[in-house]
Design goal:
Four copies of one chain form a homotetramer. With 362 residues, chain A is an alpha/beta fold. Chain A folds into two domains: 124 residues, NAD(P)-binding Rossmann-like Domain (Rossmann fold); 181 residues, Dihydrodipicolinate Reductase, domain 2, CATH 3.30.360.10. In chain A, 31% of the residues lie in helices and 20% in strands. Chain A contains twelve helices and 14 strands. In chain A, the strands form two sheets. Chain A has a seven-stranded parallel sheet, with helices on both faces. In chain A, strands 9-10-8-11-14-13-12 form a seven-stranded mixed sheet. In chain A, helix 7 runs parallel beside helix 12 and helix 8 runs parallel beside helix 10. The longest helix of chain A has 18 residues. Chain A is globular and about 60 Å long. The mean pLDDT of chain A is 95. Chains in contact: A-B, A-C, A-D, B-C, B-D, C-D. At the A-D interface, strand 8, strand 9, strand 10, strand 11 and strand 14 of A face strand 8, strand 9, strand 10, strand 11 and strand 14 of D.
Chain lengths: 362, 362, 362, 362
């Protein structure tokens, strides 16, 4: 049994962690912090937990958190980077669901997040928390930078293709649609039901923070393949030999609460049958990724409330354009579920311990 | 480990049973029938079960069902009554989620359901499947008539008041609102998203099949109290001494998928404080019913996907009118979850085995 | 052609006024104020008005508003009462969509709205803006206190019954359900789509500001009938002869944007057929109220975007309990449409001028 | 005043025609047919029309339709082609909202629609009903093949770019999202609220009927420019000189009722500023198309219930990939509104007569 703390327990990823951990057989949540709701019972804010969670919100203090084996940060960006150093020094493992340690390039991070990074020295030691890509590093890490929701859906969809060098990396398109819970539990006009219900829109078209994260992630896959001596079919990368990803990423807001659907476009000569097999093989041993039979497209509800990603591949009209569909629940595989998956790996538990929930249908 | 069959596995209550039983540690689902989808894998129809359920739909045949320890009927009304007799004779226990055995009065059943009852002799031996009211009978029964969704929400809300004789039984009002999954998985114009989305309406105002079920249930509570020698504050019942329930029941359709909210009105002299205590005491030992703190009203999402009922009581403006709010998930506590709760009782398992799921929020 | 000003043009009732008035053949909107969005084009905030509205938000100033023939207040409560006096003195007519002049009893208003009333002397001269009840007074008034959204739906449903003295006034119940736009365009956690979508709840059960407004309105109907010498079937009213309304009012939030459904319960001996005729006669000459054929219940979408109210009456199970269903669009008949209906009456225009829009279906 | 008939008045495009035409000052709807609802009042099926439409559904018969000046077909595919010839011969103009006359290539039509075309000789004389592209032909035509909903949104987005030869025609992507009303008013499992609510999915990825229509439309624009002697920057087209459009079209279903958002990807060297100007100029005189200010993305609700199309252009990250966003209401600009726009053109009315409705917000 390990003890866990949650910093920022009143956001949607925080309550989702509570929902999952309340039934996790090897974890006891001993500290849940919230500045705004200090001293309130967790189940008064989240009545879905009534009878299943006796925790009380406390103020976020290093001393009490330092008594946990592991601390999750389900906070806005910029909090984990302030507290991580001390907690790590006191032997606590950290799983950060925010973006503080996701980008290896500090100045890029500071550009996109509009903050000065307060712990740049920790960035290199953070393992990127996307187990299907980075499992071995996660097992050994003390600090996990959980992948973002969009990056998870997009990277899992492109991964097999890039590993095999099958697509033109300069012309990738990710047209991604998210439910509104991705905007978090913040009182913002733009997230009102009257503003988002019964309507659909693109947003942040000119640039979204998850763009550099996705590009970094895909470039790393290429880099790793190159290091492994994989022969990519065509020369690529910039002059310095660094792989270069040309990606257009357009996020959209769709009138539902949970779920991400990524529709990914790339150019390839490979046949659909070969790509279907490739995907099936690549993910055959993955607990949380499943490839649908040829011709079947996934609904986001297939994974609502579960830690699964479902993928489909299509080559419409026999053209070179390949379409990959990738769906996840942004709060589970895109956040809290993935964090617990990382926790399981870090502690040698079964990777799906506490994560065997089934998507709610209908 | 017991083996279970599900007849009618393609409806919403059927798939909800599958979702729950797939993770139930003491049940193995060995037969799932569907006329329409015979020979298809269950997870092609319900892709939320991919990787978690290898079952294949078969045609509904008594011989294969008779090999199960227990058979659930998640069928339209009129199916269970045809197959129950033979299955019971062959030693199979039956949990019927349809309405076939809910009404003790055969002619009343035939009036409301528009069918000739084919197994009237079994009605008396059926235990009404609402554990909070009828636990001991359920434990001993071979045939369970699970309570309907509306009747569950309404009866749990009125129960403590009627047991104590605190309300005027002649003037009860149940204004009840349901999500659209209550209409089942049937291709009907009136259930289209274009017809039900962004709109709210009352329906079946002149009379709904759940009305006689609720009245029968409440009358039985009165009857039991009378038999126990409880002194009701005022004479009531018709001349023959039979308790008479005057109930106006108006169901409404609300633009969401899951959830029932019952707003119950009755007349009482008792104080709100006393009623709050009464509810808390009455349900103190119930796993699946919780009474919210005074002044807090429940959202249906508090119980979405879980087997819980949440209750609140109010006396607005100091008048005699008492308002009870009762919320459940119509597919769980109102159907499949309640059925599994009954199964647990019938088999001596912990009552909440396989039912510890937490409502999805947000 | 008259000139109109709108104070508080950025809320939902404000933009709804703009939508209606943009096509009104006898009104030109010359001033639209907004503190927060001063100097912005209206159609940048409300892109549905692109190409149809050239207005620019200005700061709310009496001098510019005083040049209008009429000024609408689509503001939070407490604003109109500060500006009304001066505008009236300068010959401007006022149509207040907020609650400032709705309650005749100042201390009751101050209790429910938590403010000191700054223009109590104007309350008596304000005509209550519900044309179906108060048409003649509206025609002659300079200051209109538009009826609230819930009060409109509830009063139109009870009106014919009270006028004829057919129901027991001590035991009225209004179980009312509203879309979320009723909460206005305010950044509030409780109005987020993630908080209100796919869920249903009661709120303000212990007391809602619209309760005294409804009771005052219904009492006034009784009073008027008494003054007209109508013989009510039974003695009623308190000892001083003042009619007393016993009303339990429970508002609920339903996961849709627009629409109110009121389900009204009362006790009557009258037959359903007589009540159906009564309703049809009472509203035969009303442009905006229609009584559905017997047995048909209204959907709120029947009136979405239109100024209509649709009504149905039922007596389920032959009991004395009468059920009236009443639906409106809270932003139209419950706010901006009603305000324009009043404007038309005040100016001698056809009552439905600019209001002939048809509800959007589906 | 002209008289109009509507064949297939019970579908969503039919009722939308009724909603628009009920207030059109120059049109009287004299015949509305429906096989299923013959002899019923239209307002019993569509209660939003109560008080505004006295029509009664009749059986579809050529004789009564032949007395109209114009007949709209709001029918499933395959009906208009059976009745058009006789009506045209009897001097009736036809506006077909179905797909019967959209594709110039008969065998292509028969392939995609799975029917034998019964009036292939009429195809050539049908004018494609997308006024912004084909206004002059529409004015003179007796038979209009109204553009489909997806084709309208996609073509208006690509049009200015293709007219100026600015994009690579071989690599177009249209990632399009539609509300569920696009599936029509048919009792289909896949359109239930329980199936489509709170979920998002791609469908018909391997091929959708609107693909050949879009390709034909875009090719025609190229053809016309070539005929006009416009110099396209690069050689394109197949060897025979026929312009060739390489388009990947992926439709998606989004959990709302009305609205289409097309996100269009193409490759161009032109600067964003030039493209923004180009779009503004191209549509400066169009009543129903507006180009949003740079950096602003449209919501589908901006046009809900109105005949407008709103467009935005972006070049994210300075790459060559251009992103065009295009939103319409699928039932208005994508169907009934566009049909009335064509009617206005055919009759010399103002193009926006009866179409000045403003989108409902919120």
């Amino acid at each position: 049994m390990i003890s866990a703390g949650i910093v920022g327990g009143t956001g949607y990823t925080g309550v989702e962690l509570l929902r999952i951990l309340a039934l996790h057989p090897e974890v006891e949540v001993t500290v849940v912090t919230s500045r705004a709701d200090t001293d309130k019972r967790v189940d008064t804010i989240y009545p879905n937990l009534r009878g299943l969670c006796d925790a009380v919100f406390t103020a976020p203090e290093v001393d009490s958190l330092a008594e946990c084996d592991v601390v999750f940060f389900a906070t806005p960006n910029g909090i984990a980077m302030k507290m991580a150093d001390e907690l790590l020094n006191r032997g606590v493992k950290i799983i950060d669901l925010s973006a503080d340690f996701r980008l290896q390039n500090v100045s890029e991070w500071e550009h996109w997040y509009g903050l000065i990074h307060e712990s740049p020295h920790l960035i290199r030691q953070a393992a990127y928390g996307l187990p299907e890509i980075n499992r071995e590093a996660i097992k050994k890490a003390s600090l996990i930078a959980c992948a973002g929701c969009y990056p998870t859906a997009v990277q899992l969809g492109f991964l097999p293709l890039i590993e095999k060098g099958l697509i033109d990396l300069k012309h990738l398109i990710a047209d991604v649609k998210s439910g509104v819970s991705g905007a978090g539990r913040k009182a913002a006009l733009s997230s009102l039901m009257s503003e988002t219900g019964e309507s659909f829109k693109a947003y942040a078209v000119a640039g979204h923070r998850h763009l550099p994260e996705i590009k970094q992630g895909l470039a790393k896959v290429v880099q790793r393949q190159l290091e492994n001596g994989e022969a990519f079919s065509t020369a690529f990368g910039d002059e310095a030999g660094k792989p270069e990803i040309g990606l257009t990423f357009v996020p959209h807001l769709t009138p539902m609460i949970r779920g991400i659907n990524a529709t990914l476009y790339s150019q390839t000569d490979a046949s659909l049958a070969d790509i279907q097999s490739l995907f099936e093989q690549r993910y055959a041993d993955e607990n949380f990724v499943s490839v649908l039979p040829q011709g079947v497209a996934p609904d986001t509800r297939n994974v609502r409330g579960s830690n699964h990603c479902q993928l489909s591949v299509f080559k419409p009209q026999g053209e070179n354009t390949l379409v990959v569909l990738s769906v996840i629940d942004n709060l589970v595989k895109g956040a809290a579920g993935q964090a617990v998956q990382c926790l399981n790996l870090m502690n040698g538990f079964d990777e799906d311990l506490g994560l065997k929930t089934i998507a709610l249908y209908p």
